[in-house]
Amino acid sequence: VVTSDPTATARCYFDRTSAPEQESVDDMEERAMALADAAALKKLAVDYMHPERGIETSDPTATARCYFDRASAPEQESVEDMEERAMALADAAALKKLAVDYMHPEVGVVTSDPTATARCYFDRASAPQEVGSISTTTPKKATTIAKKSVTKTIPAPVIKTVDSAVNTSGIVKSVSAVQLYGLDEDNCDPSF
């Protein structure tokens, strides 16, 4: 703009009192550095939270070692070792279940097979016959069979007596009574 009037003046837009405060060059450089740091941190956070994304680089000579093939990597198991370990753990689990079943017989046997059946141990054909066993359905016949089988096969109990149960003084003593020989009044030790 060219003017010929020396008294013509204009206010500077940036120097007016209502103008926003301007930053110095140092403040602008510091702000730019802070924004660059924030962008770098954001990129690192995204890389950490999304490992499925690949790493992009513009340097063709940049290479990395494989984490699993490094010299200090722990030795990896072969497929055979993994299968053997799985079998050993399965055997240990089965043995634990058997031990729990053995130690806790009060826990019932649970099966999901509706055709699974078991024979009764006492009703099997090879079970020894009991003396008083009854396998009939009528009560009168059962009692007569039971009386006959009991009277025929079971002998009467024999009561054995011990001759020393009756003392010479006529006092009856129990067979299980303690006999302290040599301490009766006739043979008493004088030191007592």
Number of beta-strand segments = 0
Outline: elongated
What is the percent of helical residues? 25-40%
Radius of gyration: 53 Å
Poorly predicted ranges (pLDDT <50, ≥5 residues)?
A: none
Order of helices and strands: HHH
Distance between the termini: 149 Å
Q: What integer is the average pLDDT?
A: 76
Task: Output the number of helix runs.
Answer: 3
Structural category is mainly alpha
Q: How many strands, which pairing sense, and closed or not: the largest β-sheet?
A: none
Question: Which percent range describes the beta-strand content?
Answer: under 5%
Question: Helix and strand layout, with pairings?
Answer:
Blueprint: H1 25-49, H2 79-103, H3 139-153
Structural descriptors:
about 190 residues; mainly alpha; elongated
